[in-house]
């Protein structure tokens, strides 16, 4: 980029429409999920290693506050990333690729994700 | 065609199709696992380990883990390339990510077949 045009990258002065916010959240949840793989693989490993390991994982998910929080957090990130991913497929199919359509899909993404996150919370807690 | 030697397939179009295909595999796997746990409220070790001893489940799981590895790399490559501008820091970060993905992949396969 050797352009002489002025560049504004001051995030405080830039207006972020809803689709921009849902897009950055998609990225953030992706990064969170990658970091969270440590917990997911640990749980899978322990739960399949032995009877004691399985009970330890089940016990942690049933009684340990921190484990519940991590599980709910990762399920929430997964739910959002999943829904926002479906939105990508809808955009790939050239559906609602307009300014209004983008805002509407962003709104639907948030609503559906919130519902799934609440359901995940009920499941975990 | 513009290529980037650090991207997964060195082509945006290939990255795009890999991201979609791996997403579909992981979506099916996720829905299956969540559904399985939901439908087995009294899940015990014998049932759980029995599921993962099935050949089809191991194939399904390895497929999901390989999809995860590809998906994670395409996604994290995009994000790190977008936000980390100094080349040395970016390449260092991406190297750590590749190593982590490799560890997860081997770990996952080891879990499936039991060390």
From TrEMBL, chain A:
Heme binds at residue 81. The heme is bound between the two transmembrane subunits. The chain crosses the membrane at residues 24-44, 65-86, 106-124. Its cofactor is heme. GO terms for molecular function: electron transfer activity; metal ion binding. It is a multi-pass membrane protein. It is found in: Membrane. The keyword Flavoprotein does not apply. The keyword Transmembrane helix applies. Keywords: Heme, Iron, Membrane, Metal-binding, Transmembrane, Transmembrane helix. It comes from the Bacteria. Its main location: membrane. GO terms for cellular component: plasma membrane. It holds the Pfam family Sdh_cyt. SUPFAM superfamilies: Fumarate reductase respiratory complex transmembrane subunits (SSF81343). One of its GO terms (biological process) is tricarboxylic acid cycle. Membrane-anchoring subunit of succinate dehydrogenase (SDH). PANTHER family: SUCCINATE DEHYDROGENASE CYTOCHROME B560 SUBUNIT, SUCCINATE DEHYDROGENASE CYTOCHROME B560 SUBUNIT, MITOCHONDRIAL. Belongs to the cytochrome b560 family. NCBIfam families: succ_dehyd_cytB. Part of an enzyme complex containing four subunits: a flavoprotein, an iron-sulfur protein, plus two membrane-anchoring proteins, SdhC and SdhD. The complex can form homotrimers. This is Succinate dehydrogenase cytochrome b556 subunit. It comes from Halomonas binhaiensis.
TrEMBL record, chain B:
GO terms for molecular function: electron transfer activity; heme binding; metal ion binding. Keywords: Cell inner membrane, Cell membrane, Electron transport, Heme, Iron, Membrane, Metal-binding, Transmembrane, Transmembrane helix, Transport, Tricarboxylic acid cycle. Signal peptide: none annotated. CDD domains: SQR_TypeC_SdhD. InterPro entries: SQR/QFR_C/D (IPR034804), Succ_DH_anchor (IPR014312), SuccDH_FuR_B_TM-su (IPR000701). It comes from the Bacteria. A ubiquinone binds at residue 83. Pathway: Carbohydrate metabolism; tricarboxylic acid cycle. The keyword Transmembrane helix applies. It is found in: Cell inner membrane. Heme binds at residue 71. GO terms for biological process: cytochrome complex assembly; tricarboxylic acid cycle. It is a multi-pass membrane protein. GO terms for cellular component: plasma membrane. Membrane-anchoring subunit of succinate dehydrogenase (SDH). This is Succinate dehydrogenase hydrophobic membrane anchor subunit. It comes from Halomonas binhaiensis. The gene is sdhD.
């Amino acid at each position: 980029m050797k352009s002489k045009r002025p560049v504004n990258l001051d995030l405080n002065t830039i207006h972020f429409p809803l689709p921009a916010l849902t897009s950055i959240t998609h990225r953030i949840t992706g990064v969170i999920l990658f970091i969270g793989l440590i917990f997911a693989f640990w749980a899978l490993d322990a739960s399949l290693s032995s009877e004691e390991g399985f009970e330890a994982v089940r016990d942690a998910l049933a009684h340990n506050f921190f484990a519940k929080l991590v599980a709910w957090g990762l399920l929430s990130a997964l739910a959002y990333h999943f829904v926002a991913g479906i939105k990508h497929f809808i955009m790939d199919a050239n559906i609602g690729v307009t300014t209004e359509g983008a805002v509407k899909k962003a709104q639907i993404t948030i609503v559906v994700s919130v519902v799934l996150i609440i359901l995940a919370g009920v499941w975990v807690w | 065609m513009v290529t980037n030697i650090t991207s997964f397939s060195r082509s945006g179009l290939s990255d795009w199709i890999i991201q979609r295909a791996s997403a579909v595999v992981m979506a099916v796997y996720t829905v299956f696992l969540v559904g399985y746990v939901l439908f087995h409220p009294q899940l015990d070790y014998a049932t759980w380990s029995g599921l993962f001893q099935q050949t089809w489940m191991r194939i399904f799981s390895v497929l999901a883990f390989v999809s995860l590895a590809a998906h994670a790399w395409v996604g994290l490559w995009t994000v790190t390339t977008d936000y980390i501008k100094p080349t040395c820091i970016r390449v260092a970060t991406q190297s750590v990510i590749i190593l982590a993905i490799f560890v997860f992949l081997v770990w996952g396969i080891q879990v499936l077949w039991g060390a």
